[in-house]
Each structure stands twice: as C-alpha cells, then as structure tokens.
Design a protein that fits this description.
The chain is of the alpha+beta class. It has four helices and 16 strands. A six-stranded antiparallel sheet has the order 7-6-16-15-12-13, with no helix packed on it. The protein has a five-stranded mixed sheet with strand order 9-8-10-11-14, with no helix packed on it. The chain has a three-stranded mixed sheet with strand order 4-3-5. The protein is globular.
C-alpha cells in the first residue's frame, strides 16, 4: 500500500469541487505522513519484550480545519489506520488492540496546525490477533478450529446469498498461518479477485464468496 497509494486515494477522495476546501490550511495527506513518526517516537518495550506502539491516535485540529475535514473524517481515519498497520508490519511492532484513529477539535490551534496524541488501549481479550471482517461489518476472531463459510445455518459463517454454496469454503489454521480452501463451490472462491483452490491468507486479503466479501486481518 505505502504512502504513495495513500496519497493517490486521498486525491480521489477530495477531487472535484470539494478539493477547493483543501487549497489552504491543513491538507489531509499531512496526517497520513505523520502516523509512522508517531509510532516510531512513542514505541516502548512491554513486560513480554515486545515493542508496542500506541493503537489509538487522536489528531487535534483547529476549528476551521476540523470543519473542512468532517465530510471525509470516516474515510480519512480508515486510510490513516491502514498506513499505520502497514508500518507496524514492516517494523515488526506489536499492538495492544485494534488501531483507531480519531479527529478532535482544538480551539487553541491556528488553521494549518495540528497536534497528535497517542494512547495505549489494551483489547479486553489482549492483542486482537487474526480476525475476519464479515459482510455485516462484524469482526470474528480466528482460533485454532476450522471455520466453514456457507449458505446454510450449520455453517460457522452464514452468508445469505443465493450465489454461495451450502458449504462454500473452509478456513483452517496451519502453524502460524491461516489457509482458505474452496469446497468445490458452484461459483468458486476468490482472494483479491483471483479464483483460488487453496490460499494462505495474508493481512488485508479480501475473500469473495458469491457477491459478498470477507476481509482477513492478521493484526
């Protein structure tokens, strides 16, 4: 993904008439460029010997900048979080819980300036670990057992789609990785748009079953 990809997506996000709002003052890309430095500057070693970084980061903006950013806040925070996750993977850092990015209004700041605040928030069950983001938006943490994706109710992940087979695909843990296997489904299983029979899942992989998608997250 990288910062270049992030910057291209932000350009599309604010293109057209809306882009006029960002010709002066703070630009969204400046926040994305900052997240890696926040992690590097605020990292620490925990009692288990892991190098952990803040998993909740707040960007404090001036009132004018905050108002301009409101329309793209959700998408912007998501994109910044993705850049942060990539940096965590590249540097071998650990997290206490899911990365969350927030924007906040700070009336003491002048237009174009911003402050950052990183915090360590432990997930109730510890570091989140591998999980699936289901079509409903629900997060399902992966464990040691197999998971069946299918249309009928005895499946572990039920996908209500006529293009999904009764038992469509299986996800299995193998040592330190997770493998998805197509169960000879009628319409096939894809990962990142490519048809697969068996595939070792990587962080951010998008699984396609019927017309629905499931996202695998390793962090």
């Amino acid at each position: 993904m990288g910062l270049k990809g992030f910057e291209r997506r932000l350009e599309r996000l604010v293109e057209g008439a809306f882009s006029r709002a960002f010709r002066s003052g703070l630009r969204p890309v400046e926040l994305g460029r900052k997240i890696s430095r926040i992690f590097d500057d605020e990292r620490m070693v925990d009692v288990r010997g892991r190098t952990v970084v803040p998993n909740q980061v707040t960007f404090e903006l001036s009132p004018d900048d905050y108002e301009r950013f409101e329309q793209i806040a959700t998408a912007l925070c998501r994109e910044i979080g993705e850049v942060g996750k990539e940096h965590v993977r590249d540097r071998g850092y650990s997290l206490m819980g899911p990365i969350e990015i927030h924007l906040a209004r700070n009336p003491q700041l002048r237009t174009g300036n911003f402050k950052t605040r990183g915090e360590f928030h432990e997930d109730p069950d510890g570091a989140r670990g591998p999980s699936l983001i289901l079509p409903t938006g629900e997060r399902l943490r992966l464990g040691a057992g197999d998971l069946i994706i299918g249309r009928i109710s005895d499946s572990d992940i039920v996908v209500d789609d006529p293009n999904v087979s009764r038992h469509h695909a299986r996800i299995t843990q193998e040592t330190d990785s997770y493998l998805i296997t197509d169960l000879k489904s009628m319409n096939g299983t894809t990962v990142n748009g490519a048809n697969i029979t068996r595939h070792v899942l990587n962080d951010g992989d998008t699984i396609g079953v019927g017309s629905r998608t499931i996202v695998f997250e390793a962090l």
